[in-house]
Amino acid sequence: MFHWSDIPKYIDPTLFSIGPIEIRWYALMYIVAFLTVYTLALYRIKTEKLEYAKQTIIDFIFWAILGVLIGGRLGYVLFYNFRYFVSNPLTIISPFDVSNGFHYTGISGMSYHGGMIGLFLVLILFCRKNKMDVLPFADFFIPTIPIGYTFGRLGNFINGELYGRVTTVPWGMYFPLDATHQLRHPSQLYEAFSEGILLFIILWSLRKTKFFDGFLLSLYLISYGLVRILIEFVREPDSQLGFILGPFTMGQILCAAMILGGTLIMMDRGSGSRKHITK
């Protein structure tokens, strides 16, 4: 008999295989995410009569892909498993395990916060190269990002990874990668909805609002940070790290930094905007 709680065990994370190499649904989710962001960006240009050229968007998406992938990987290395990767540096970029023969394992481990840092770094470099203002360009893209992020969390759910803590709620699930075989929160779905769909609805509805340059960027940093901190209370901490500071996880600490960054931008740019108005 089918049970809701057993859904993860019916999902095959492998899309298809080529010899020993597996192509996973998770990789497809990344592709869909970037295509979605690209499509929404072009939609904004067309419907809102914005002056950005289509080629500019194409070029930036390419930069963004590199920033997210490289930043996400290095973020995982630095924030979540530094000791292991210092001892095994080749595993940072190698999809093969040579410790016991030669096996394809793929590259496992990406950090949202690392990807975000990588994205912002390439955003700054791209804008400087093209002589564009950083904050308005960031505000242009910010409303499109959460819905793309939704696909990443769905990829985590398909992989059966990053599941939640043990629970008794009726919508809890059993995840094959959980060695304890206990009912757990499907925290990936919580994140897909709240950090993805919900924030998309909010930011997309405010996309034409411009209190000051950097408003949507600061709002995103603060709102994502707050939502993620709450969800982390039901998400299982990474086994190699556990809790970092009392009851708080690495994800919560990094999100606190996001909130601080967003608040500083809002205070700085917002106060500047008010001064301009009162002159």
Report on the structure:
With 279 residues, the protein is mostly helical. The protein is built from nine helices and four strands; from the N terminus they run ββαααββαααααα. It has helices at 25-48, 54-80, 82-87, 112-129, 134-141, 145-159, 187-205, 215-232, 250-278; strands at residues 14-18, 21-24, 96-97, 103-104. It starts with 13 loop residues before the first strand and ends with a helix. Strands 1-2 form a two-stranded antiparallel ribbon. Strands 3-4 form a two-stranded antiparallel sheet.
Largest sheet: 2 strands, antiparallel
Distance between the termini: 71 Å
Rounded to the nearest angstrom, the radius of gyration is 20 Å
User: Which descriptor suits the 3D outline?
Assistant: globular
